[in-house]
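step=encode ok
step=design start
structure_in=
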């Protein structure tokens, strides 16, 4: 699993490169993004609704897109509301609090997609979103450490040196989950 110190730090580039390297080495591997908020999206009758930016990243691995690669898609409509697309099928619109209440059902969707993908591929590369150190999302996140634990996947942490402070960002990302646990215990 590839996670990052934040958004835009190079997770997608690294995942694409890994998928291509594995494909060239003869492995049938794929990219999975458990939950995604796309800037653009596309509907494919074979694959359902999927995030358009993910499709070019699947090509280096030599795979056709499926809804299991991107089982949960969020289509933002306002600051506090999104339409939720589960395995290519649009559900109703949800406010964030309602969405957070769907966590156990959505984790099961991710688990089922993970199992189906594992049955057809030699390996998979999972891309996280944002940062695993988002303390405010620790109990509701569906894309980082909860998926890494579910998949029993080792985690690579990516940072962007061009942004400055990369070593502090890496260290703080590793430290913050522990700090969050201490704060929780103190309360």
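sequence_out=
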């Amino acid at each position: 699993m590839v996670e990052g110190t934040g958004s835009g730090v190079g997770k997608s580039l690294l995942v694409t490169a890994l998928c291509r390297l594995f494909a060239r080495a003869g492995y049938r591997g794929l990219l999975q993004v458990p939950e995604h908020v796309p800037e653009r999206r596309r509907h494919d009758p074979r694959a359902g609704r999927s995030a358009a930016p993910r499709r070019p990243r699947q090509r280096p691995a030599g795979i056709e897109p499926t809804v299991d690669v991107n089982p949960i898609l969020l289509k933002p409509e306002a600051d506090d509301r999104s339409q939720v697309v589960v395995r290519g099928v649009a559900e109703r619109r949800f406010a964030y609090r309602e969405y957070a209440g769907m966590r156990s059902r959505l984790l099961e969707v991710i688990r089922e997609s993970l199992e189906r993908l594992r049955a057809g591929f030699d390996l998979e590369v999972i891309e996280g979103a944002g940062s695993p150190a988002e303390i405010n999302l620790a109990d509701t996140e569906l894309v980082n450490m909860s998926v890494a634990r579910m998949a029993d996947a080792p985690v690579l942490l990516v940072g962007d040196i061009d942004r400055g402070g990369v070593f502090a960002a890496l260290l703080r990302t590793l430290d913050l989950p522990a700090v969050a646990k201490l704060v929780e215990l103190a309360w």
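step=design ok
step=annotate ok -> The beta strands are 2-4, 29-32, 35-36, 41-44, 48-51, 72-78, 81-86, 89-95, 123-126, 156-158.
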